[in-house]
TrEMBL record, chain A:
The lineage of its organism: Bacteria, Pseudomonadati, Pseudomonadota, Alphaproteobacteria, Rhodobacterales. It is found in: Cell membrane; Membrane. This is Multisubunit potassium/proton antiporter PhaD subunit. NDH-1 shuttles electrons from NADH, via FMN and iron-sulfur (Fe-S) centers, to quinones in the respiratory chain. The immediate electron acceptor for the enzyme in this species is believed to be ubiquinone. Couples the redox reaction to proton translocation (for every two electrons transferred, four hydrogen ions are translocated across the cytoplasmic membrane), and thus conserves the redox energy in a proton gradient. One of its GO terms (cellular component) is plasma membrane. One of its GO terms (molecular function) is NADH dehydrogenase (ubiquinone) activity. It is a multi-pass membrane protein. Belongs to the CPA3 antiporters (TC 2.A.63) subunit D family. Pfam families: Proton_antipo_M. Residues 128-413 form the NADH:quinone oxidoreductase/Mrp antiporter transmembrane domain. Keywords: Cell membrane, Membrane, Transmembrane, Transmembrane helix. GO terms for biological process: ATP synthesis coupled electron transport. The chain crosses the membrane at residues 6-25, 32-52, 78-97, 109-126, 132-150, 162-185, 205-231, 238-258, 278-297, 304-324, 330-349, 370-390, 410-435, 466-486.
TrEMBL record, chain B:
The chain crosses the membrane at residues 6-21, 28-51, 71-97. This is Multisubunit potassium/proton antiporter PhaC subunit. It is found in: Cell membrane. It comes from the Bacteria. It comes from Ruegeria conchae. It is a multi-pass membrane protein.
Amino acid sequence: MNHWIVAPIVLPAILAPFIIMVLRYHLDLQRIFSVAGVVGLLGIALTITAQATTGEIQVYELGDWPAPFGIVLVLDRMSAMMVLLTALLALPIVLYAIGSGWDDRGKHFHALFHFQLMGVCGAFLTGDAFNLFVFFEVLLIASYGLMTHGGGAVRLKAGVQYVTYNLLGSTLFLFALGTIYAVTGTLNMADLAVRVAEIPPEDTALLRVGAVLLLLVFCIKAAVLPLHFWLPASYANAPLPVAALFAIMTKVGAYSILRVYTLVFGPDVAATEGLVGAWLQPAALVTLAVGTVGILGSQHIARMVAFCAITSMGTLLIAISLFSEVAAAAALYYVFHSTLATALLFLVADMVMERRGGAISPTAPMPQTGLISALFFVGAIAMAGMPPLSGFIGKLLVLDASRGAPDANAVWAVILIGSFVTIVGLARAGTLIFWKCHDVQAIPPTEPDSEEEPVATAIAPEPHAALAFTSVFGAVLGLVLLTLFAGPALQYTSKTAEQLFTPDNYISAVLGREE
Amino acid sequence: MEALVASAVGVMTAAGIFLILRRRTFPVILGLSLITYAVNVFLFATGRLALDAPAVLNKYEDVPYTDPLPQALVLTAIVISFGMTAVIVMIALSAYLSSKDDHIDMSASDSVDAPGEDA
C-alpha cells in the first residue's frame, strides 16, 4: 500500500495536538512549526499529485480492512488536485496570519488551522460516505474556533449563527446517510455505486429522498441559494485571513457534489436521472445573480468579498450542474482559480480594514494605498473574469462547455451580465476606497457624536508588514502561474473529468482488489 | 413498535424545528439537541428494528441478529453532536456575556465595523 495517501491527514493530525500541548506558550515556535507543517503538506500534496497523474486510482485501506467493510481513502486525479489546492492556499494564508499579527489576537490559531487542514484533506481523500461526514465535522469544529478567533461581541454573535446553521446541516447529513444506508446497506461510495445501480426502479423512492437530502447538505456547504444565508454574515465577521481559508470550505461542498453525483448517483443511474442537474442548475444561476446584486449593494468591503465568494460558487456550480466531461474539466479549472482569487481578495480586504476600516465610503488616505490598491485591482480583475488573468480563461471555459446544453442561453446571459455587474460593483468599491480618499475636503465632517474614540485609525502597525505583503503577492503569483500554464492545467483537469465520468475504474480499484 | 419509533423521531424533529425558529439562543440550542436526539434514533433504526437480538453473527446456529453498523454510526454521531452542543453553548455564552443580549439575530447596530470589533 502507498502510505503517502494518508500522509496529508496524519501530518496535521499530529502537528495540531503537538502545537497545543507542547508549544502552547511559545508563539514563535508555533509559527515556525506551523509554517513548516504547511510546507510539508505542500510537499506531500505535490508527491501524491505526481503519483495521481499516472491515471492509476490508488486505494488506502485503513487498518488493512478490505474495502466494503473497512474505511478506504482513495487517491485519484481529483482528490490529489484538491489536496494540492488546499496546501497551496494554506501557505500564503498562514504567512499572512503571522505577518499581520492575527495569530496573536487569540489563542490556538495555528493548532485550529492545522485541524482545519486535516478535515479538508480528509474530506477530499475519503472514499466512504460516513467518513466524509466525520471529516466534515472535523473541519467544521476547527472552523468554529477559527471563526470566533480574536473574540468580540459581533464576531461571537455571528459565530453562534454560523455554528447553528452548520449543526443543522450536519443533522441533515446524518438523516441523508441514514436513509441511504437503510436502502442500500452500505456507505462505501464505490459499493454504493454498485448497489444503487442494481436496485429496481420501482423501489427507489426512498433512495431518491436520500439523494436529494444529500444534495441539500452539500448545497448548504457550497452556499447555493437559497441556502447561502450563513455565508455573508459569518465570512464578513470572521477574521479575514480565516475567511480566506474558508474559501476552500465552500469548495468542499462543490467537490462532494461532483464526486457523489458522478460516482454514486451518476448521470446514467435510472433512479436519479435528471433529478440533480434539474434542481442544481436554476439554483446555481440564481446564486450567481443574487451574488452580483450583493456585490453591488454591499456597504462594507468584507461583506462585498463574501458576496464575491457566492458569485464564484454560482459560476462553479453552473459548470458542475451540466454534468458533462467538458463542463467538469472547466469547473475543476475554475475551482483552482476562484479559490485563489477569493482568498486574495479577502487578504486585501483585511489590509484595508486594518488601515482605515472596511466601510465602502470616502475616508482619509491610509498608508500604502498604492500597493494595496494595485493588489485590489489584480484581485478584482481575477474575480470579475476579465483578461488577462485566469478568471477570464475559467469563465470562457464554462461558457464554452455550456454551448450545447439545453439552457445555454440562460447560462450565457446570467454569466455575462453577472460578470458585468461584478465589474461595476468592484469598480465602485475600488473608486470609493482608493481614489476618493485623497479628496479630504470632500469628506463630510463626522457626526457630532465624535467623542467616541477613533478605534479604526488607532491600530498599531503590523508586526511584519513585509511578510504580509509577500504572502499576498504569493497568491497573485499563483493566479499568474495558473494563467500562464492554463494549457497544462486544462489538460490535467480534462483527464480528471474523463476519470470522473468513467466510474467503473474507481469502483473496480476500490472493490476489486485481489490481495 | 415501528410506529412508536417513527412517531418519536417525527415528534422530536418537529419540536426541534419549532425551537430552532425561536429568537433567543437557549431555545435554539435546546432545539438543536432535540434534533440530534431524533437523528440518533433515526440512524439506530436504519438497520431495521430487532428485539432481543445480539449485534453479532452466531456461526453455530441461525439466530436473529441486529445490524451492528448503525450502532457504530450512532456512537460516532452521539459523540460528535455532544461535542458540538458543548461548543455552541460556550460560544453562545460568551456572545451573551460580551454583548449582554441573547438574541440570535444580529441587530442593525451590529454592523461589521462596529467599534471594538477588533478588541
